[in-house]
Amino acid sequence: MQLGERVSGAVEARREELIRRCQRLLQIPSIDRESSPPGDTTEVHRFARGDLDAPGVEQSDVTVREGLPNLIATVTGAGPGPHLVLNGHFDTYPPGDRGRWTRDPFGGELVDGRIYGRGAIDMKGGDAALMTAFLVMAEHRRDWRGRITLTLVSDEETGAKFGSEHLAANCPEVQGDMVLSAEPSGASLVRFGEKGASRLTFTARGLSGHSPVPSMGRNANHLLMDFLTDLRGLAGPYAGTPPWLREMAAKIGPTFDAMFGSGAARYILETTVNVGVLRGGEKDSLIPYHAEAWVDIRMPFGFTHAEVMNEVRARLERHPHIECEVRHWRDPNFTDPAHPLVRTMVDSVTAVRGAPVELSCSLGGTDCRFWRRRGTPCVVYGPTPHNIAAPDEYIEVADLVNVTKAHALTMARLLA
Q: Which residue from 60, 79, 54, 197 is spatially nearest to 143, judged by alpha carbons?
C-alpha cells in the first residue's frame, strides 16, 4: 500500500478524534485583538500545544505580544527532502449579537453532520484538519523524507503583525519550500491567490457647538459622511484585471454563486469598499467635533495599495478636514497555478472527493502572502464557507474529513 493510501486511511480511522478536536477548538473563545472587548488566544494555544504532544513532534512558542502566542510544531522524516509549512490561525471574529444565533457560538455542537461555532469555517475547522494531518504524518515519519512544520498563529484577523508576518520574516524554522493552508476555499475549489486589501482609518476634525445653531460649529459626522460617499466611488470593476482572471471568474461563477450569492464571482474582478466601523458624537443636541471610520478596501489583481492611496489622497484634497491613517495593507498576490504544489493539491482533492476541482483566487486574504513575498509557493484548500463571519457559522463533517485527507495526501505525495 502506498503512503498516500495509508495516510488517507489513518485520517479516516481518526474521524471521531478529528471531530472532537474541532469541537474543542470551537469551545475555547479566541476573539481577535481589535474587537470590543479585545480577546486573546492564550487558552486555545494551550490546548493545541497539549494536543500536539506526540512522538517525533518538537514544539516551540513565539510570542511577540502578550496574549497572542504562536505555536510552531515540527516533525522530521527519514532523510533529506522538501520542507513543507502548514499554516493556520487561532483568532476569530467576535460572535456579535448572540440572540441571532440558534446555536451556542462557543458550543461546538454537532447537529445533522454540521459542527456549529464561531470560527468553524474561519478557521478552527481548518486548524483541526491541519493538526490531524500533521499528527498522521508524524506517525508515518519513517516512510517519507523531508520536514513538516505546523504554524498555528495569532493575529491573522487583525493584520498578522504579531503572528505570521513576524514568523515568516524572523524565524528560519518556518521559512520552508512550500506552504499549505486550510483557510476556507470551497469544497470544489483550490485557491492559488488572493485579492489585496487596504485597511484605513479616517478621522474628521470638526468644531463643537449647540445643534440649534449649526453655524456655531463644524459637524464632524457630516464631514465624514460626505467623504465616505466620495470614497465609495472607488468600488466597482477594475479595467486592469488580466484576461486570464476574467476567464477564471466566468468559469467558477456558478460555484461562487452557490457559496456567496448570485453574481458573487464578479467581486474577483472588482474593487470593494466596506465602511465597517463608524464612531462620532456624544449627544444628539451637540455638534460633534470628532468622527472616525474604519474602512476596508479590497483590490483585484492589477490594482495595488499604492494606487489605492493615490485615489484616497485625491479625495482627501477635496475634503480638507479629513485625515487618513493606514492600519495595514497587502497587495494582491498569487502562486503560479502550474506549480507542482498547486497541481499536487488539485490532484489530491480530486482523488479524495472523486469529483472535478477548479482553481480559484480568494476574495479574502490569508497569511500566505507573507511567504509569497519571500517567493515561496503557497496553496489553500479548506471547507465551504457556510455562514462565515455570520450567525450559525458551521462546518460540514464531510468537508472537515475531506480537507484533512487532501492535506495529508498532498504532503505524502510531495515527500514520499
A: 79
